[in-house]
Structure formats: structure tokens, C-alpha cells
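ZP: hey, is the shikimate-3-phosphate complex queued? I don't see it on the tracker
AM: it wasn't, my bad. submitting now with these inputs:
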Amino acid sequence: MKNNIVLIGFMGSGKTTVGEALAQELSYGFLDTDQYIEKKEQMTISQIFAEKGETYFRGVETSSLQELVSDLEGTIISSGGGLPLRPENAKLLKQLGFTIYLKASQETVWERLKEDTTRPLLQCENPQKKIQDLLDYRDPIYEVGAHMVVSVDDKSVEEIAGEILRNYEMMVKPQVD
Ligand code: S3P
């Protein structure tokens, strides 16, 4: 397995915040796939959805992942919430490194994202129901796509990062003797 940690999970589950904390702790690089796509396309995620549509965005997600998979090492990767949904992407994510599902409840996601305007999928009439519907569909896919599942409800960033680091060090990190 490559020397990377990949965080997957729903919008608002803390992939970026926890990822940055892990990168700091391990002195690893940090890469957020949404930021990578925004740079590549010279547009925000909201603009891509509005002007080119979700199908186009999903295509860019897959091609970005294919670009990244060959040369990332020593990096924490925070992946967009929809990235593991395509089976070919889920396979690539697992090849990229130790993959962790940050599992959040509907209530946690809603609490964190109720004022957010940057997630196009949640700019709808009933975002609370939309979160529940998407979670019902996605949760089993995230579970299967991960080497490890960490529940994030009611935990601090430090607690979540600590849990991940203990497991990563035990299960994956190359040992130097
Ligand atoms: C999406 C999640 C977003 C972003 C886009 C679509 C999704 O990323 O890729 O808005 O389908 O769940 P975050 O999970 O980083 O918010």
C-alpha cells in the first residue's frame, strides 16, 4: 500500500479539517481533491455544477484521481464526498493509500452545513431530507470503500486525528528499525 492516508465521507464530515491536522502531525503533504479540481478547471465547484453540470464534474473527479494515483506519496488526501460513488474511483482511492471513512450522522452534517452555500447539492428546498437521502444511499458505499471507519459525531478534531494515527501506526506506517 502507498504511503498516503485517504479520507472519504459525506460533506461536512471533517475530511479537510482532520486531514490538515493529520498532515501536520505526520509532516505529510495535504491535498484536497475539490481544491485540485478548482485549480485545474479555474472555476469554483459551485460554478462547475452551475455552468457545466454534475455529470461533467464527476468526469473531472475521475480524471483527476487517475492523474493523482501514480505520483502521490506521503500525503493526506481529503476527497470530495461523491468521489467514492463510482466503483472505479473507489478502487483507485484504495490504491492511493490507507482509506478512512469519517462517518457523520445526518444531525451532525446538518448542524455543520446549515449556513453553507458552497455545496451545490444542498442548495435545495429541503436540505435536511436531501442529506438523509444521500446518506442512506452513500453510507454503505463509504463503508465498503474504506479500510477503517471512524465515527465523528461529538468528537473533537484532536480525538479523531488521534484515533486515526493510532490505527495507522499500528497497521500501515512503514517501521524504521
Ligand atoms: C460533493 C461533495 C463536495 C464537492 C461537491 C459534491 C458530494 O465535497 O465535491 O460539492 O457529492 O458529496 P466535500 O465533501 O469536500 O464537501
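AM: back. Residues 5-176 form a domain with the Rossmann fold fold (CATH 3.40.50.300).
ZP: great, adding it to the tracker
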